[in-house]
Amino acid sequence: MTTMMASNLVTRWSGALWSGALGICAIVAIIRPAHADPRAVVELFTSQGCSSCPPADKVIGDLSSDPSIIALSMPIDYWDYLGWKDTLADSRFSARQRAYSRMRGDREVYTPQVVVNGSTHVIGSDRAGIESAIGKADKGAGVMSVPVTMSLAGKQINVSVAESKEPAVSHGEVWICSIAKSVPIAIAKGENRGQQITYHNVVRNLLKVGDWNGRAESWTVPIENLTREGVDGAVVYVQDGSRERPGPMLGAAYTSLH
Known about the structure:
It comes from Bradyrhizobium sacchari. With 258 residues, the chain is mainly beta. It has one domain (40-256): Immunoglobulin-like (Sandwich), CATH 2.60.40.
């Protein structure tokens, strides 16, 4: 089938202030480091109203068990008119998918579509194609080369981005996602009517943490004003470009909140 960010305070340790909303469903009183140095961020643009999507949703479930891959589901809303309104969809995800298409210079906006490390797109159900795209992206200059760490301490998340070791990689935007690891949905209408489908690592909110300029930097994100039920994980990623013009993924980290 063809065709992203609320009002918590983010305080950068160097003094800059940011605001936004982060939906996290628990206050964690211990420090737990995130998994380090993943090789890929895999974003799936999917829809509960798309009959071609369930196999891709399963692939993302499989990939989410691989600690070297950060797999994310970003449900879009442009198929809602087909008879079933996607209960997880967010118009920001539809905009993100279109922004990727503009940056590639094509009109390839469809579901299920996977974008690997912010650049290559693959049919979401094509597991071999996704693995191939990950392998090719590994060869790109600077792709997933910046170490990112994330930890929980009391009522805040600490985010650190290391200094770049590559001269060509000197800036990027830092974003944090709150995610629900597993969301079963009973679909009553539309192309997938009668099915119960489990969606994996569903992004429930996005918050810009700050801008990274190639030097080691850290920020804190307070956990308050819980906005989404079911959120049990968080992902931080550093991406070249901007929200309107997203580029390659430079680094990322994931942590469980339970």
